[in-house]
Design brief:
Elements (H helix, E strand, L loop, with lengths): L1 H14 L10 E7 L3 E11 L2 E10 L12 E16 L3 E17 L5 E17 L3 E7 L2 E7 L6 E4 L1 H5 L5 E7 L1
């Protein structure tokens, strides 16, 4: 329940975000983490709101040598700039958002299977005076994962989405 109150407070603060710090019209680039590598597209819709679409590979078990093949996933989120400040070299913004993700991924020690879930986002972005954005965010996933095949399949909590949520995601995008 306290998360619901925090989310409502976050939405209320979005209404009071400064008008000078605005979401950029469009940006394209990559997002990198120990758990994934994604292509990312952002599209501004209002002064303090933007949509983000990501698609890429999920590294669960690949980097530590458990499996040879990564999974794939895609996601969509609606993000809000909740605070911003202008500097002589660019604009710093704090953001938060909510969305969904889906994919064909692997949990540690389990076979590949389809996954779907809700995702949250909290992070910061720095828009330089040149058309480049650097971002750092945390994106937990609360979802379900289908394990097994045929009549032996089970629907379970997607634990990797919560366990790997503490991995920061570094993004670099070109603004156009």
């Amino acid at each position: 329940m306290k998360y619901l109150y925090a989310y409502i407070l976050l939405m209320a603060l979005t209404a009071f975000a400064p008008g000078s710090i605005a979401a950029q019209p469009r940006s394209l680039g990559g997002v990198f983490s120990f758990s994934c590598a994604e292509i990312s597209y952002q599209h501004g819709t209002a002064d303090s709101t933007f949509f983000e679409i990501n698609a890429g590979v999920d590294f669960c078990g690949v980097l530590d040598g458990q499996v040879q093949h990564p999974g794939v996933r895609a996601g969509f989120s609606c993000n809000f700039i909740v605070w911003g400040h202008s500097f002589s070299t660019g604009d710093l913004s704090a953001l938060a958002g909510i969305g969904f993700t889906t994919g064909y991924v692997r949990q540690t020690g389990v076979s590949f299977g389809p996954m779907a879930g809700l995702t949250g986002k909290i992070g910061i972005e720095y828009l330089f005076r040149v058309p480049v954005i650097l971002s750092l965010d945390f994106t937990p996933v609360l979802g379900m994962h289908l394990e097994g095949r045929g009549s032996d399949s089970r629907l379970k909590l997607y634990q990797e989405g919560l366990m790997k949520a503490y991995y920061p995601r570094l993004g670099i995008r070109y603004v156009f």
